[in-house]
Design a protein that fits this description.
single chain, alpha+beta, seven-stranded antiparallel sheet, four-stranded antiparallel sheet, 13 strands, 28% strand
Length: 244
């Protein structure tokens, strides 16, 4: 009986051990399944995070490039406009490199009425009548811009096709006195000194073609009167220039 009892108890213990082993194995499989599932989820989340980070970086780069492009365009636009909202003049204009030059609305007003007489604005310091007594047709007016100064050349067409013109250059010497002294040094003993509208002037031969020209010096510009049939034509046109 005792032996039978002990065998029964041993069978019970074995059953318990078997149950524990089965439970632990099942539990291990379940745990493995959960671990694999969690690892897959984390891997997917990691991929999604990497993708989202990549797209965020690409978007940030695109925005930065867009802003840079806008700023460059604005700088480029500012280089060709002024604070007054300028636009290109209908009067053809160019600089030394044949680039487009922009004029403000005020700068395009190249003529005005002075005491009922149509007048061409040559520069910031001088004007000349649009018409001269011996010529019926209006002259050719050519405007250009240098260092924010609007300079206007005027070409009058005389009978026979001869031109009588006023050509301007900026005074890079300084004052009118300094410009005249430089003119004297270049044409010492060859030029004829004159006074035109209270400004010093000189009849000289052009260094380009050897033809006679009348040069008037101002604080802002130097004025070259050229063409015509004689020095008298040059002097008469020069005397029509008004300095202010």
């Amino acid at each position: 009986m005792k032996e039978q009892f002990e065998r029964s108890m041993l069978d019970i213990d074995l059953c318990r051990l078997e149950t524990d082993i089965v439970w632990k194995q099942a539990n291990s499989e379940d745990l493995k399944f959960k671990l694999v599932r969690d690892m897959k989820k984390r891997h997917i989340k990691s991929k999604l995070y990497d993708l989202s980070t990549y797209f965020v970086r690409i978007s940030a780069c695109a925005v930065a490039l867009g802003i840079a492009f806008i700023l460059i365009k604005q700088d480029d636009f500012k280089e060709h406009t002024t604070s007054h909202g300028s636009y290109q003049s209908d009067l053809s204009s160019f600089d030394a490199e044949d680039q487009v030059v922009f004029f403000t609305r005020a700068e395009q007003e190249l003529t005005k009425s002075v005491n009922g007489v149509e007048t061409v604005i040559l520069s910031g310091e001088a004007t000349v009548p649009l018409r001269i007594p011996t010529i019926e047709e209006k002259p050719e007016i050519i405007a250009r811009k240098e260092n924010q100064h609007v300079l206007v050349n005027v070409n009058y067409l005389l009978m026979g096709g001869t031109k009588l013109s006023i050509r301007l250059e900026l005074n890079h010497e300084g004052t009118a006195r300094e410009a005249y002294e430089a003119l004297m040094r270049r044409h010492f003993n060859t030029g004829q000194q004159l006074m035109i509208s209270d400004h010093q002037a000189m009849l000289v031969k052009s260094e380009d073609d050897g033809l006679q020209q009348l040069v008037i010096v101002g604080d802002e510009c130097i004025y070259y009167i050229e063409g015509g049939q004689s020095s008298d034509d040059l002097i008469r046109l020069a005397e029509l220039i008004t300095f202010y």
